[in-house]
Automatic annotation (TrEMBL):
Pathway: Nitrogen metabolism; (S)-allantoin degradation; (S)-ureidoglycolate from allantoate (aminidohydrolase route): step 1/1
GO biological process, one term: allantoin catabolic process
Enzyme class: hydrolase
NCBIfam families listed in its UniProt record: allantoicase
Family: Belongs to the allantoicase family.
Reaction it catalyzes: allantoate + H2O = (S)-ureidoglycolate + urea
GO molecular function, one term: allantoicase activity
Name of the featured protein: Probable allantoicase
Organism in which the protein naturally occurs: Actinomadura rubrisoli
UniProt-listed Enzyme Commission number(s): 3.5.3.4
Length: 338
């Protein structure tokens, strides 16, 4: 992954994204748009509605009384609200039935709005009406510079789209972080893996996903090392804070868990402090450790020699300065929208 596609997909289903409404889904359901896996296709798999597609496909539109074809749309709630840096509209496997054009709008609405509530929202065009090709992933950089909670995908006039990816930077609501014990390493709180030694099998950001991993593919796993080194990942925390408890989870990693693990905290000036010494791990186990931590802005996790982690949680509290910084950023990018 390069450019904006290296950023988290704010809309993917595994991060809580949802297609809350669509104009039509006659041939293939709207929920497929946010599936986390690459689009799949099996030829000659015909169901009651025709060829089955791993995507969203609408009926063929016909002109109304006024001669207007209209267009189809899907309304998506982002699992992680944030600043959108780029959108991918993927027409994989749609060759004779893809839409010739598509556009994307975005809005920010507080609380938990219904589709009817969103109808009157202040929508901003982030991808103008653009031509599409069949069986192609179309990447569109976005430079809107503000936080969004929902996007609306429109295709003109109809057809099939396999996936919508909405890549960006998470901007959490400080109301759910300040004055509380929180997971400083959670992707949903704004943490990110900024460097790692190896991501052969899966992205290290997977360690920071919400919930429990359902299988070994939903964590971070490296290739087998054939040297004397070890694998590692550097996590920029949601904001500087004090880590009180670490949870290192090797669930589902039964034959490829690391033998040992260590944690090192790094403050905003680059000074390093040991948080957890090199410690033995067990396969398929949720390990928890109380920590005594200085204020840190990032944490390096070292695994020995290689293997994988299902989840990494770093529970703690933000520094007063970090709380003020998050609140300032929130008002600058969101204007107080939730």
């Amino acid at each position: 992954m390069t450019g904006f596609t290296a950023l988290p997909d704010l809309a993917v289903r595994t991060l809580g994204g949802s297609v809350v409404a669509a104009s039509d889904e006659s041939f293939a359901v709207k929920e497929n748009l946010l599936n986390p896996w690459p689009p799949a296709f099996s030829p000659a798999t015909f169901g009651p509605k025709g060829q089955e597609y791993d995507g969203w496909e609408t009926a063929r539109r016909r002109p109304g009384a006024d001669g207007d074809l209209g267009h189809d749309w899907a309304l998506i709630r982002l699992g992680l609200p944030g600043v959108v840096r780029g959108v991918v509209i993927d027409t994989a496997w749609f060759t004779g039935n893809f839409p010739p054009y598509a556009a994307v709008e975005a809005c920010a609405v507080a609380g938990h709005p219904s589709p009817a509530d969103l109808a009157g929202a202040d929508w901003t065009e982030i991808v103008p009406r653009s031509p599409l090709k069949g069986d192609t992933a179309h990447a569109f950089p976005v430079d809107a510079g503000r936080r969004f909670t929902h996007v609306r995908l429109s295709m003109f006039p109809d057809g099939g789209i396999a996936r919508l990816r909405v890549h960006g930077t998470v901007v959490p609501d400080p109301a759910f972080l300040t004055g509380l014990t929180v997971d400083l390493a959670a992707l949903e709180n704004g943490a990110r893996v900024v460097e790692c030694s190896d991501m052969f099998y899966s992205s290290p950001d997977n360690m920071l996903f919400p919930g429990l991993a359902r299988n070994q593919a939903e964590g971070w796993e490296t290739a087998r090392r054939r040297d004397d080194g070890n694998d590692w990942a550097l996590i920029a925390l949601a904001a500087p804070g004090v880590v009180r408890l670490a949870e290192i989870d090797t669930t589902h990693l039964k034959f490829n868990a690391p033998a040992e693990c260590a944690l090192t905290g790094i403050d905003r000036h680059g000074a390093a402090s040991p948080l957890l010494p090199r410690t033995r791990l067990q396969p398929d186990t949720r390990h928890r450790f109380r920590l005594t931590s200085p204020e840190v802005a990032s944490v390096r996790v070292d695994i020995y020699p290689d293997g994988g982690l299902s989840r990494l949680r770093l529970l703690g509290t933000l520094t007063p300065e970090a709380e003020r910084s998050l609140t300032t950023r929130w008002h600058r990018l969101a204007g107080g929208a939730g």
